[in-house]
Specification:
By secondary structure, the chain is mainly alpha-helical.
Length: 155
């Protein structure tokens, strides 16, 4: 189980860092690209960012599923089951936001720069930014709680 918690935390921390960079730096700068080259820029953005975040998102989802399957081990160690459950709910919300809001907005921007689509992308991406920040907090809490329970079992 410790390997699963470490991989889960690493993927979640990675995505939290990526989403903050995207939220604070990358998406706001979309507006400075210019209309003429924006469709090509958006296309290049999508083709470059997808393998980076897609891989981490799949690893994170797989680990989250495995954590849910092993929740009985958390109870046995005195770790509240709501921690991995809350993380899974947050992840579901992140994925829902990604595919219901951000992907369609990127599709719209792929046709050319649109100020309202850009503003909506920046605004709605806060859902994922807050979600991954909370997930990172829960992943750290879960990892620390597991380590503390391991120390308690040995002592």
């Amino acid at each position: 189980m410790p390997w699963l918690l470490v991989i889960h935390a690493a993927a979640t921390f990675f995505m939290a860092g990526v989403i903050w960079i995207i939220q604070v730096v990358h998406y706001p700068l979309f507006g400075m690209v210019g209309r003429d080259g924006f469709a090509a820029y958006e296309s290049a953005h999508a083709s470059r960012i997808t393998p980076v975040v897609g891989t981490a998102m799949l690893v994170e989802a797989a680990c989250t599923g495995l954590l849910l399957l092993t929740m009985a081990e958390f109870s046995a160690r005195g770790i509240p089951k709501w921690i991995p459950l809350a993380g899974a709910i947050l992840l579901a919300g992140i994925w829902l936001s990604t595919f219901a809001l951000q992907v369609p907005l990127h599709g719209q921007l792929g046709q050319g720069f649109d100020e309202s689509a850009h503003a909506a992308l920046v605004r709605t991406n806060w859902i994922r930014t807050v979600g991954w920040s909370l997930r990172a907090t829960l992943a750290a809490w879960l990892l620390v709680a597991w380590m503390e329970s391991s120390v308690g079992q040995r002592g």
